[in-house]
Amino acid sequence: MKAIVVEEFGAVEDFMETEVDRPKVNDNDVLIEVHTVAINPVDSAIRKGRMPFKLGSPMILGTDISGVVSEVGKNVTDFAVGDEVFTSYKVNRGGGLAEYVSIPEKYVLKKPENVSFEEASALGIAALTAYQLVNKESYEVKAGETVFVQGGSGGVGTYTVQFAKQNGAHVIATTSRNEELLASLGADQVVNYKEEDVPKVYANKADVLIDTVGRGTDTLPVVVEGGRSLTPAAPISEDKAAERNISIDRIVYRIDTGQLNRFIDQVSKGDLKVIIDEVYPFTQDGVQKAYELSESGHAAGKIVIKVK
């Protein structure tokens, strides 16, 4: 089968098209004919050797996948050939940038007919991260609170804005050029961080800072004394936070199929918007361009590869 791979750790230019064996289907696995795969910053971290694990060689990146069931293992009971499905699988397994991927049944979910393959694959890591940021125990965003979302127009940010609004928060979100998009997602105030001195202008405006881009220490002044801040990216300075009694934490998302089912249901009902910046073809050039956009930090929402 066709796959777009990286032989070893390397740059965007090192992606190449090749033929690899179709994955084995174990007794509890579902073989998915891949239709779309959404890419994530963690893919680039894996490719650059910045994670505490390594994929096999050649590396096939991608874990947020949608497609059609092609084969099922003998113990699989909830899926049949022809079912439209999606999954967010372990990042240390990869496999998405290929024509087929074999996934344990417990990680596979059915896709509603009125949700596109592109939308389904663009949930995954980004939506899970955003939801777990907004609803983390003791940091949970509550109705009436003001939440400052740093990086509001990115993959995680677009979901964070929506989940915070679902919790009843007043949302302030930053962007460099996607003001209308953030307003359409429900942001009450949109801040162009290139045009305003954010820490000064918005000092003490937020009960909660959710930093999706790794600049939380610089933006900490927006949080009121005794407030809280959370990030999935670079850690926030404990010393800076302690000066004003601000609680801080850093999360690593967890796979939760119950949450993914809730998200896909909301998308199906029109209660959650999936923002996709670009859909690229499943070619060496297409994959390279997709990761170039991802690593530029300027994508609005998610980036998807259309495999089929």
Please give a handful of descriptors for the protein shown.
single chain; 308 residues; alpha/beta; Quinone Oxidoreductase, Chain A, domain 1; Rossmann fold; 2 domains; seven-stranded mixed beta sheet; 10 helices; EC 1.-.-.-; NADP-dependent oxidoreductase
Briefly summarize what is shown.
By secondary structure, the chain is α/β, with parallel strands linked by helices.
Write structural notes for this entry:
- It is an enzyme of class 1 (oxidoreductase).
- One of its GO terms (molecular function) is oxidoreductase activity.
- This protein is an alpha/beta fold.
- The chain folds into two domains: 154 residues, Medium-chain alcohol dehydrogenases, catalytic domain (Quinone Oxidoreductase, Chain A, domain 1, Alpha-Beta Complex), CATH 3.90.180.10; 124 residues, Rossmann fold, CATH 3.40.50.
- 26% of the residues lie in helices and 28% in strands.
- Strands 3, 4, 5, 6, 7, 14 and 15 form a seven-stranded mixed β-sheet that branches. The protein has a six-stranded parallel β-sheet with strand order 10-9-8-11-12-13. A two-stranded antiparallel ribbon has the order 1-2.
- The chain is globular and about 55 Å long.
The tally of strands reads 15
Gyration radius, rounded = 20 Å
Fraction in beta strands: 25-35%
Overall geometric form: globular
* Low-confidence runs of at least 5 consecutive residues: none
What distance lies between the first and last C-alpha atoms, to the nearest angstrom? Answer: 13 Å
Overall number of structural domains: 2
List SSEs in N-to-C order.
EEEHEEEEHHEHEHEHEHEHEHEHE
Percent of residues in helices comes to 25-40%
Q: What characterizes the major β-sheet? A: 7 strands, mixed
Structural class computed from helices and strand pairing = alpha/beta
CATH fold annotation of the largest domain: Quinone Oxidoreductase, Chain A, domain 1
